[in-house]
Amino acid sequence: MERVTYRADGINILDNFSFHIARGEILGLQPLDNDGLDALMDIIQNNPPLYFGFVYYMENCVNTWRGIHRTKNRVTVIGSESSLVKGMDVVTNIFVLRPGFRQEMIHRSLLSRQLKPFLEDIGVSIDPATPVDHLSAFERMVVEILRAVVAGHHLIILREIGSVVSENDLEQLHGIMRHYAARGFSFLYISPHYEEIRQVCTRMVLMQGAAIQMSRSGRDIRQGISVMYYREYYDHVTRRIRRREWMDRRKALLEAKNISGEYLDHFRFSLYQGECLIIQNLDMAIHQELTAILSGDDTKKRPELVLGGRQIRGFGSREVAYVREDPARTMIFEDMSALENICIALDGRVPSVWRRQGVQRAVREEYARLFGDDLIDREVGALTQAERIRLVYARIMFQHPQVVFLEQPYKNADVKLRFQIYSLQEMLLNRGLSIVILAVNIADGLTLADRLVRVGLNNGRIETREYLRRDFASLPINIPWVDVFSDIRKDQAAEARG
Length: 498
What we know:
Number of domains: 2
Largest sheet: 6 strands, mixed
Structural class: alpha/beta
CATH superfamily of the largest domain: P-loop containing nucleotide triphosphate hydrolases
Oligomer: single chain
Shape: globular
Helix content: 25-40%
Protein backbone atom coordinates (compact mmCIF):
# COMPACT_ATOMS: atom_id res chain seq x y z
CA MET A 1 0.00 0.00 0.00
CA GLU A 2 1.53 3.28 -1.11
CA ARG A 3 0.28 6.68 0.21
CA VAL A 4 -3.29 5.41 0.49
CA THR A 5 -6.02 7.80 1.58
CA TYR A 6 -9.38 6.10 2.10
CA ARG A 7 -12.55 8.04 2.89
CA ALA A 8 -15.99 7.03 4.14
CA ASP A 9 -18.89 9.47 4.62
CA GLY A 10 -16.54 12.35 3.82
CA ILE A 11 -14.09 11.42 6.61
CA ASN A 12 -10.53 10.19 6.11
CA ILE A 13 -10.30 6.74 7.67
CA LEU A 14 -6.74 6.17 6.44
CA ASP A 15 -4.61 9.18 5.51
CA ASN A 16 -1.42 8.84 3.43
CA PHE A 17 -1.07 5.27 4.70
CA SER A 18 1.88 3.14 3.52
CA PHE A 19 2.37 -0.49 4.40
CA HIS A 20 4.12 -3.55 2.94
CA ILE A 21 4.56 -7.28 3.47
CA ALA A 22 7.34 -9.19 1.74
CA ARG A 23 7.05 -12.56 0.08
CA GLY A 24 7.53 -15.33 2.66
CA GLU A 25 7.32 -12.90 5.59
CA ILE A 26 5.38 -13.34 8.82
CA LEU A 27 4.57 -9.77 9.81
CA GLY A 28 3.06 -8.97 13.19
CA LEU A 29 0.63 -6.09 13.60
CA GLN A 30 -0.20 -4.88 17.09
CA PRO A 31 -3.15 -2.47 17.08
CA LEU A 32 -3.07 -0.15 20.09
CA ASP A 33 -6.58 0.86 19.10
CA ASN A 34 -8.93 -0.39 16.41
CA ASP A 35 -9.04 2.88 14.45
CA GLY A 36 -8.75 2.13 10.75
CA LEU A 37 -8.15 -1.61 11.23
CA ASP A 38 -11.38 -2.73 9.54
CA ALA A 39 -10.72 -0.30 6.67
CA LEU A 40 -7.22 -1.76 6.27
CA MET A 41 -8.66 -5.28 6.04
CA ASP A 42 -11.24 -4.12 3.48
CA ILE A 43 -8.58 -2.52 1.28
CA ILE A 44 -6.29 -5.55 1.42
CA GLN A 45 -9.11 -7.91 0.50
CA ASN A 46 -11.67 -6.07 -1.58
CA ASN A 47 -10.04 -3.05 -3.29
CA PRO A 48 -12.71 -0.44 -2.52
CA PRO A 49 -12.45 2.96 -4.28
CA LEU A 50 -9.58 5.08 -2.93
CA TYR A 51 -9.38 8.84 -2.51
CA PHE A 52 -5.68 8.64 -3.29
CA GLY A 53 -2.88 6.08 -3.41
CA PHE A 54 -1.95 2.73 -4.90
CA VAL A 55 -2.28 -0.91 -3.82
CA TYR A 56 -0.06 -3.67 -5.22
CA TYR A 57 -0.50 -7.40 -4.80
CA MET A 58 1.96 -9.96 -6.16
CA GLU A 59 3.79 -7.02 -7.85
CA ASN A 60 0.67 -6.00 -9.80
CA CYS A 61 -1.23 -2.75 -9.26
CA VAL A 62 -4.71 -3.91 -8.17
CA ASN A 63 -6.16 -0.61 -6.95
CA THR A 64 -5.54 3.08 -7.53
CA TRP A 65 -7.30 6.37 -6.92
CA ARG A 66 -7.51 6.84 -10.68
CA GLY A 67 -9.93 3.95 -10.85
CA ILE A 68 -9.29 0.59 -12.49
CA HIS A 69 -11.24 -2.60 -12.93
CA ARG A 70 -11.32 -3.80 -9.34
CA THR A 71 -11.66 -7.43 -8.26
CA LYS A 72 -11.12 -9.07 -4.91
CA ASN A 73 -7.55 -10.03 -4.07
CA ARG A 74 -6.64 -13.65 -3.44
CA VAL A 75 -6.31 -13.08 0.30
CA THR A 76 -7.63 -15.21 3.18
CA VAL A 77 -8.62 -13.82 6.59
CA ILE A 78 -8.80 -16.24 9.52
CA GLY A 79 -10.32 -14.95 12.75
CA SER A 80 -11.78 -16.16 16.02
CA GLU A 81 -15.03 -17.03 14.21
CA SER A 82 -15.13 -19.73 11.54
CA SER A 83 -15.49 -18.88 7.84
CA LEU A 84 -16.01 -22.52 6.86
CA VAL A 85 -19.37 -23.65 5.47
CA LYS A 86 -21.18 -25.51 8.24
CA GLY A 87 -22.85 -28.79 7.41
CA MET A 88 -20.05 -29.64 4.96
CA ASP A 89 -17.05 -31.86 5.57
CA VAL A 90 -13.37 -30.93 5.52
CA VAL A 91 -12.57 -32.06 1.98
CA THR A 92 -15.59 -30.20 0.55
CA ASN A 93 -14.58 -26.95 2.26
CA ILE A 94 -10.97 -27.20 1.06
CA PHE A 95 -11.45 -28.31 -2.53
CA VAL A 96 -15.05 -28.14 -3.77
CA LEU A 97 -16.11 -24.75 -2.42
CA ARG A 98 -13.03 -22.86 -3.53
CA PRO A 99 -13.29 -20.47 -6.51
CA GLY A 100 -12.29 -22.12 -9.78
CA PHE A 101 -13.43 -25.65 -8.92
CA ARG A 102 -15.20 -26.81 -12.08
CA GLN A 103 -15.64 -30.58 -11.77
CA GLU A 104 -19.23 -31.63 -12.33
CA MET A 105 -18.68 -34.98 -10.60
CA ILE A 106 -17.17 -34.85 -7.13
CA HIS A 107 -14.86 -37.80 -6.44
CA ARG A 108 -14.49 -37.64 -2.67
CA SER A 109 -12.05 -40.52 -2.43
CA LEU A 110 -9.79 -38.84 -4.99
CA LEU A 111 -10.01 -35.49 -3.21
CA SER A 112 -9.28 -37.18 0.12
CA ARG A 113 -6.14 -38.74 -1.35
CA GLN A 114 -5.12 -35.31 -2.69
CA LEU A 115 -5.58 -33.81 0.81
CA LYS A 116 -3.49 -36.50 2.54
CA PRO A 117 -0.03 -35.18 1.51
CA PHE A 118 -1.00 -31.65 2.62
CA LEU A 119 -1.85 -32.95 6.10
CA GLU A 120 1.25 -35.16 6.26
CA ASP A 121 3.38 -32.22 5.18
CA ILE A 122 2.41 -30.23 8.29
CA GLY A 123 2.13 -33.20 10.66
CA VAL A 124 -1.60 -32.88 11.37
CA SER A 125 -4.13 -35.71 11.40
CA ILE A 126 -7.69 -34.74 10.40
CA ASP A 127 -10.24 -37.07 8.83
CA PRO A 128 -11.25 -35.48 5.47
CA ALA A 129 -14.83 -36.70 5.99
CA THR A 130 -15.23 -34.89 9.34
CA PRO A 131 -18.02 -32.26 9.32
CA VAL A 132 -16.39 -28.90 10.02
CA ASP A 133 -18.92 -28.32 12.82
CA HIS A 134 -17.12 -31.07 14.78
CA LEU A 135 -13.62 -29.62 14.44
CA SER A 136 -11.75 -28.07 17.34
CA ALA A 137 -10.72 -24.42 17.03
CA PHE A 138 -7.18 -25.52 16.16
CA GLU A 139 -8.34 -28.00 13.51
CA ARG A 140 -10.67 -25.40 12.03
CA MET A 141 -7.82 -22.95 11.58
CA VAL A 142 -5.63 -25.65 10.00
CA VAL A 143 -8.42 -26.34 7.50
CA GLU A 144 -8.76 -22.63 6.72
CA ILE A 145 -5.00 -22.34 6.13
CA LEU A 146 -5.04 -25.40 3.85
CA ARG A 147 -7.99 -23.99 1.94
CA ALA A 148 -6.00 -20.79 1.36
CA VAL A 149 -2.90 -22.71 0.26
CA VAL A 150 -4.87 -24.93 -2.15
CA ALA A 151 -6.62 -21.87 -3.58
CA GLY A 152 -3.28 -20.12 -4.15
CA HIS A 153 -3.92 -17.27 -1.70
CA HIS A 154 -0.37 -16.10 -1.05
CA LEU A 155 -1.37 -13.67 1.71
CA ILE A 156 -3.05 -15.14 4.81
CA ILE A 157 -4.24 -12.82 7.58
CA LEU A 158 -4.70 -14.24 11.08
CA ARG A 159 -6.68 -11.89 13.32
CA GLU A 160 -6.54 -12.48 17.08
CA ILE A 161 -6.56 -16.26 16.88
CA GLY A 162 -4.92 -16.51 20.30
CA SER A 163 -8.29 -15.83 21.95
CA VAL A 164 -9.68 -19.24 20.93
CA VAL A 165 -6.71 -21.64 20.97
CA SER A 166 -4.45 -22.78 23.79
CA GLU A 167 -0.71 -22.09 23.98
CA ASN A 168 0.17 -25.60 22.76
CA ASP A 169 -2.14 -25.35 19.75
CA LEU A 170 -0.89 -21.85 19.05
CA GLU A 171 2.69 -23.10 19.00
CA GLN A 172 1.73 -25.78 16.48
CA LEU A 173 -0.06 -23.20 14.31
CA HIS A 174 3.06 -21.07 14.37
CA GLY A 175 5.03 -24.06 13.10
CA ILE A 176 2.58 -24.44 10.20
CA MET A 177 2.94 -20.75 9.40
CA ARG A 178 6.73 -21.01 9.30
CA HIS A 179 6.43 -24.06 7.04
CA TYR A 180 4.35 -22.21 4.45
CA ALA A 181 6.33 -18.98 4.81
CA ALA A 182 9.39 -20.95 3.73
CA ARG A 183 7.42 -21.87 0.62
CA GLY A 184 6.67 -18.26 -0.28
CA PHE A 185 3.34 -17.65 1.47
CA SER A 186 3.07 -14.45 3.51
CA PHE A 187 1.24 -13.97 6.80
CA LEU A 188 -0.13 -10.87 8.52
CA TYR A 189 -0.48 -11.80 12.20
CA ILE A 190 -2.72 -9.38 14.12
CA SER A 191 -2.70 -9.55 17.92
CA PRO A 192 -2.98 -7.04 20.78
CA HIS A 193 -0.23 -8.89 22.67
CA TYR A 194 3.41 -8.54 21.71
CA GLU A 195 4.16 -11.73 23.69
CA GLU A 196 2.22 -13.63 21.04
CA ILE A 197 3.70 -11.71 18.11
CA ARG A 198 7.32 -12.18 19.14
CA GLN A 199 6.96 -15.98 19.11
CA VAL A 200 6.51 -16.22 15.35
CA CYS A 201 7.04 -12.88 13.61
CA THR A 202 10.31 -11.67 12.13
CA ARG A 203 9.04 -8.09 11.96
CA MET A 204 6.23 -6.20 13.66
CA VAL A 205 4.48 -2.87 13.29
CA LEU A 206 2.46 -0.89 15.81
CA MET A 207 -0.76 0.72 14.58
CA GLN A 208 -2.43 3.58 16.43
CA GLY A 209 -4.83 6.27 15.30
CA ALA A 210 -5.17 4.62 11.86
CA ALA A 211 -1.43 5.03 11.24
CA ILE A 212 1.70 2.90 11.49
CA GLN A 213 3.64 4.31 14.43
CA MET A 214 6.65 2.01 14.55
CA SER A 215 8.27 -0.89 12.74
CA ARG A 216 10.77 -3.16 14.45
CA SER A 217 12.40 -6.53 13.79
CA GLY A 218 14.57 -9.11 15.47
CA ARG A 219 15.63 -8.38 19.04
CA ASP A 220 13.51 -5.23 19.31
CA ILE A 221 10.37 -7.39 19.27
CA ARG A 222 11.62 -9.56 22.11
CA GLN A 223 12.38 -6.52 24.24
CA GLY A 224 8.67 -5.68 24.45
CA ILE A 225 8.57 -2.43 22.53
CA SER A 226 4.84 -2.14 23.02
CA VAL A 227 5.48 -1.02 26.60
CA MET A 228 6.60 2.32 25.13
CA TYR A 229 3.10 2.88 23.79
CA TYR A 230 1.02 2.06 26.87
CA ARG A 231 3.36 3.05 29.66
CA GLU A 232 0.50 4.26 31.90
CA TYR A 233 -1.24 0.89 31.64
CA TYR A 234 2.00 -1.03 32.15
CA ASP A 235 3.06 1.02 35.19
CA HIS A 236 -0.40 0.83 36.79
CA VAL A 237 -0.60 -2.93 36.37
CA THR A 238 2.94 -3.49 37.64
CA ARG A 239 2.28 -1.40 40.78
CA ARG A 240 -0.88 -3.35 41.48
CA ILE A 241 0.86 -6.70 41.14
CA ARG A 242 3.56 -5.61 43.58
CA ARG A 243 1.19 -4.32 46.25
CA ARG A 244 -1.55 -6.97 46.00
CA GLU A 245 -1.89 -8.78 49.35
CA TRP A 246 -2.18 -12.54 49.69
CA MET A 247 -5.68 -14.00 49.97
CA ASP A 248 -7.09 -15.51 53.16
CA ARG A 249 -7.96 -19.06 52.07
CA ARG A 250 -9.18 -20.43 55.37
CA LYS A 251 -12.82 -20.58 54.25
CA ALA A 252 -14.25 -20.61 50.73
CA LEU A 253 -16.98 -18.15 49.78
CA LEU A 254 -18.27 -20.23 46.84
CA GLU A 255 -18.05 -23.95 46.18
CA ALA A 256 -18.98 -25.14 42.68
CA LYS A 257 -19.43 -28.92 42.48
CA ASN A 258 -20.66 -31.69 40.21
CA ILE A 259 -19.98 -29.89 36.93
CA SER A 260 -20.28 -32.71 34.40
CA GLY A 261 -20.87 -33.09 30.69
CA GLU A 262 -19.33 -34.71 27.63
CA TYR A 263 -15.81 -33.66 28.69
CA LEU A 264 -16.10 -32.51 32.29
CA ASP A 265 -16.58 -35.18 34.95
CA HIS A 266 -17.55 -33.89 38.40
CA PHE A 267 -15.33 -30.84 37.93
CA ARG A 268 -15.30 -28.53 40.94
CA PHE A 269 -13.61 -25.37 42.15
CA SER A 270 -13.62 -23.02 45.14
CA LEU A 271 -13.60 -19.23 45.30
CA TYR A 272 -12.55 -17.07 48.24
CA GLN A 273 -13.77 -13.69 49.42
CA GLY A 274 -12.32 -10.87 47.30
CA GLU A 275 -10.40 -13.32 45.10
CA CYS A 276 -9.88 -13.18 41.35
CA LEU A 277 -9.74 -16.74 39.99
CA ILE A 278 -9.00 -17.58 36.36
CA ILE A 279 -10.19 -20.90 34.97
CA GLN A 280 -8.25 -21.33 31.74
CA ASN A 281 -9.60 -24.00 29.42
CA LEU A 282 -6.83 -25.33 27.20
CA ASP A 283 -9.38 -26.81 24.79
CA MET A 284 -12.19 -24.79 23.17
CA ALA A 285 -14.63 -27.68 23.56
CA ILE A 286 -14.09 -27.69 27.34
CA HIS A 287 -14.53 -23.93 27.45
CA GLN A 288 -17.82 -24.06 25.54
CA GLU A 289 -19.15 -26.83 27.77
CA LEU A 290 -18.13 -25.11 31.02
CA THR A 291 -19.54 -21.71 30.04
CA ALA A 292 -22.81 -23.27 28.85
CA ILE A 293 -23.23 -24.99 32.22
CA LEU A 294 -22.21 -22.08 34.43
CA SER A 295 -24.21 -19.48 32.46
CA GLY A 296 -27.36 -21.61 32.60
CA ASP A 297 -27.58 -21.96 28.80
CA ASP A 298 -27.41 -25.74 29.22
CA THR A 299 -30.52 -26.27 31.34
CA LYS A 300 -30.02 -30.04 31.54
CA LYS A 301 -26.69 -29.83 33.36
CA ARG A 302 -27.00 -27.77 36.52
CA PRO A 303 -23.96 -27.33 38.76
CA GLU A 304 -24.22 -27.41 42.52
CA LEU A 305 -23.37 -23.93 43.82
CA VAL A 306 -22.86 -23.38 47.55
CA LEU A 307 -22.44 -19.72 48.56
CA GLY A 308 -21.56 -18.91 52.15
CA GLY A 309 -22.53 -22.41 53.27
CA ARG A 310 -25.97 -22.51 51.60
CA GLN A 311 -27.02 -23.82 48.22
CA ILE A 312 -28.20 -21.20 45.72
CA ARG A 313 -30.05 -21.24 42.37
CA GLY A 314 -27.08 -20.11 40.31
CA PHE A 315 -27.84 -17.04 38.21
CA GLY A 316 -31.43 -17.01 39.32
CA SER A 317 -29.93 -15.55 42.49
CA ARG A 318 -28.96 -11.86 42.68
CA GLU A 319 -25.90 -12.88 44.68
CA VAL A 320 -24.20 -14.24 41.54
CA ALA A 321 -23.78 -12.33 38.25
CA TYR A 322 -22.59 -13.51 34.85
CA VAL A 323 -21.02 -11.25 32.19
CA ARG A 324 -21.11 -12.93 28.79
CA GLU A 325 -18.51 -12.78 26.05
CA ASP A 326 -18.78 -9.54 24.05
CA PRO A 327 -21.14 -7.89 26.58
CA ALA A 328 -21.43 -4.71 24.49
CA ARG A 329 -23.49 -6.79 22.06
CA THR A 330 -24.92 -9.62 24.18
CA MET A 331 -25.95 -7.83 27.39
CA ILE A 332 -27.43 -4.52 26.27
CA PHE A 333 -31.19 -4.06 25.94
CA GLU A 334 -31.47 -2.00 22.78
CA ASP A 335 -35.07 -0.92 23.39
CA MET A 336 -34.24 0.60 26.79
CA SER A 337 -32.42 3.76 27.76
CA ALA A 338 -28.95 3.66 29.31
CA LEU A 339 -30.47 4.41 32.72
CA GLU A 340 -33.01 1.58 32.38
CA ASN A 341 -30.23 -0.80 31.31
CA ILE A 342 -28.60 -0.21 34.70
CA CYS A 343 -31.75 -0.12 36.81
CA ILE A 344 -33.06 -3.44 35.49
CA ALA A 345 -30.64 -5.18 37.87
CA LEU A 346 -32.25 -3.55 40.92
CA ASP A 347 -34.77 -5.19 43.24
CA GLY A 348 -35.34 -8.38 41.32
CA ARG A 349 -35.96 -6.58 38.02
CA VAL A 350 -39.35 -5.31 39.24
CA PRO A 351 -40.29 -2.30 37.05
CA SER A 352 -42.48 -0.75 39.75
CA VAL A 353 -39.34 -0.40 41.89
CA TRP A 354 -36.57 0.54 39.45
CA ARG A 355 -38.70 2.99 37.47
CA ARG A 356 -39.35 5.17 40.51
CA GLN A 357 -37.88 8.65 40.05
CA GLY A 358 -36.11 8.54 43.41
CA VAL A 359 -34.37 5.27 42.55
CA GLN A 360 -33.33 6.51 39.12
CA ARG A 361 -32.04 9.78 40.56
CA ALA A 362 -29.91 7.89 43.09
CA VAL A 363 -28.54 5.65 40.33
CA ARG A 364 -27.73 8.66 38.14
CA GLU A 365 -25.84 10.36 40.97
CA GLU A 366 -23.90 7.21 41.88
CA TYR A 367 -22.99 6.56 38.24
CA ALA A 368 -21.70 10.12 37.83
CA ARG A 369 -19.63 9.71 41.01
CA LEU A 370 -18.09 6.47 39.74
CA PHE A 371 -17.46 7.37 36.11
CA GLY A 372 -17.78 11.14 35.89
CA ASP A 373 -19.77 11.33 32.65
CA ASP A 374 -23.32 11.85 31.38
CA LEU A 375 -23.60 8.52 29.56
CA ILE A 376 -26.62 7.59 31.62
CA ASP A 377 -28.87 10.17 29.92
CA ARG A 378 -28.14 8.95 26.39
CA GLU A 379 -29.80 6.36 24.20
CA VAL A 380 -27.87 3.09 24.00
CA GLY A 381 -27.84 3.19 20.19
CA ALA A 382 -25.53 6.23 20.34
CA LEU A 383 -23.01 4.65 22.73
CA THR A 384 -19.55 3.44 21.72
CA GLN A 385 -18.36 -0.10 22.47
CA ALA A 386 -16.38 1.16 25.46
CA GLU A 387 -19.41 3.03 26.85
CA ARG A 388 -21.66 0.00 26.42
CA ILE A 389 -19.20 -2.18 28.33
CA ARG A 390 -19.05 0.42 31.10
CA LEU A 391 -22.84 0.30 31.22
CA VAL A 392 -22.84 -3.49 31.71
CA TYR A 393 -20.30 -3.30 34.55
CA ALA A 394 -22.28 -0.49 36.18
CA ARG A 395 -25.36 -2.74 36.14
CA ILE A 396 -23.33 -5.46 37.90
CA MET A 397 -22.10 -2.99 40.53
CA PHE A 398 -25.61 -1.77 41.30
CA GLN A 399 -26.86 -5.36 41.52
CA HIS A 400 -24.40 -5.90 44.43
CA PRO A 401 -23.64 -9.59 43.86
CA GLN A 402 -21.02 -11.43 45.87
CA VAL A 403 -19.59 -13.33 42.89
CA VAL A 404 -19.16 -12.27 39.24
CA PHE A 405 -18.35 -14.67 36.40
CA LEU A 406 -16.66 -13.07 33.38
CA GLU A 407 -16.55 -14.95 30.08
CA GLN A 408 -13.53 -14.13 27.85
CA PRO A 409 -13.64 -10.47 28.98
CA TYR A 410 -10.64 -9.28 26.92
CA LYS A 411 -11.50 -10.98 23.64
CA ASN A 412 -11.17 -8.67 20.58
CA ALA A 413 -10.31 -5.66 22.77
CA ASP A 414 -7.60 -3.19 21.76
CA VAL A 415 -5.16 -1.77 24.30
CA LYS A 416 -7.33 1.20 25.26
CA LEU A 417 -10.38 -1.00 25.79
CA ARG A 418 -8.34 -3.62 27.66
CA PHE A 419 -7.22 -0.93 30.13
CA GLN A 420 -10.84 0.08 30.70
CA ILE A 421 -11.96 -3.52 31.23
CA TYR A 422 -9.03 -4.09 33.59
CA SER A 423 -9.99 -0.95 35.58
CA LEU A 424 -13.64 -2.03 35.80
CA GLN A 425 -12.65 -5.45 37.10
CA GLU A 426 -10.30 -3.81 39.57
CA MET A 427 -13.22 -1.69 40.75
CA LEU A 428 -15.28 -4.84 41.37
CA LEU A 429 -12.47 -6.35 43.45
CA ASN A 430 -11.99 -3.13 45.41
CA ARG A 431 -15.67 -3.33 46.35
CA GLY A 432 -15.08 -6.74 47.92
CA LEU A 433 -16.62 -8.80 45.12
CA SER A 434 -15.08 -12.10 44.02
CA ILE A 435 -14.39 -12.73 40.33
CA VAL A 436 -14.12 -15.86 38.20
CA ILE A 437 -12.67 -15.32 34.71
CA LEU A 438 -13.49 -18.10 32.24
CA ALA A 439 -11.10 -17.98 29.31
CA VAL A 440 -9.14 -19.83 26.67
CA ASN A 441 -6.60 -17.03 26.40
CA ILE A 442 -5.66 -15.51 29.76
CA ALA A 443 -4.84 -12.13 28.17
CA ASP A 444 -4.61 -9.36 30.77
CA GLY A 445 -6.55 -11.29 33.41
CA LEU A 446 -3.33 -12.68 34.88
CA THR A 447 -2.46 -9.23 36.23
CA LEU A 448 -5.59 -9.29 38.43
CA ALA A 449 -5.56 -12.98 39.33
CA ASP A 450 -4.79 -14.42 42.72
CA ARG A 451 -5.05 -17.97 41.41
CA LEU A 452 -5.08 -19.77 38.07
CA VAL A 453 -6.59 -23.17 37.30
CA ARG A 454 -5.62 -24.63 33.92
CA VAL A 455 -7.98 -27.30 32.59
CA GLY A 456 -6.98 -29.56 29.70
CA LEU A 457 -7.47 -32.94 28.08
CA ASN A 458 -4.87 -35.70 28.31
CA ASN A 459 -5.73 -38.93 26.46
CA GLY A 460 -9.40 -38.06 26.68
CA ARG A 461 -9.33 -37.32 30.43
CA ILE A 462 -9.63 -33.97 32.17
CA GLU A 463 -6.51 -32.76 33.95
CA THR A 464 -6.24 -29.64 36.10
CA ARG A 465 -3.27 -27.75 37.48
CA GLU A 466 -3.44 -24.90 39.95
CA TYR A 467 -1.07 -21.94 40.23
CA LEU A 468 -0.98 -19.38 43.03
CA ARG A 469 0.17 -15.86 42.25
CA ARG A 470 3.65 -16.59 43.54
CA ASP A 471 3.85 -19.38 40.90
CA PHE A 472 2.89 -17.21 37.90
CA ALA A 473 6.53 -16.62 36.98
CA SER A 474 6.80 -20.34 36.14
CA LEU A 475 4.05 -20.16 33.50
CA PRO A 476 5.03 -20.28 29.80
CA ILE A 477 6.82 -17.03 28.90
CA ASN A 478 4.53 -16.47 25.90
CA ILE A 479 1.56 -15.79 28.21
CA PRO A 480 0.97 -12.01 28.47
CA TRP A 481 2.49 -10.35 31.56
CA VAL A 482 4.40 -13.44 32.75
CA ASP A 483 7.64 -11.53 32.19
CA VAL A 484 6.46 -8.92 34.73
CA PHE A 485 5.99 -11.62 37.37
CA SER A 486 9.44 -12.99 36.48
CA ASP A 487 11.00 -9.53 36.95
CA ILE A 488 9.26 -9.10 40.30
CA ARG A 489 10.52 -12.50 41.46
CA LYS A 490 14.07 -11.52 40.47
CA ASP A 491 13.75 -8.22 42.37
CA GLN A 492 12.48 -10.01 45.46
CA ALA A 493 15.34 -12.51 45.29
CA ALA A 494 17.84 -9.64 45.00
CA GLU A 495 16.28 -7.90 48.02
CA ALA A 496 16.45 -11.14 50.02
CA ARG A 497 20.16 -11.44 49.26
CA GLY A 498 20.51 -8.02 50.64
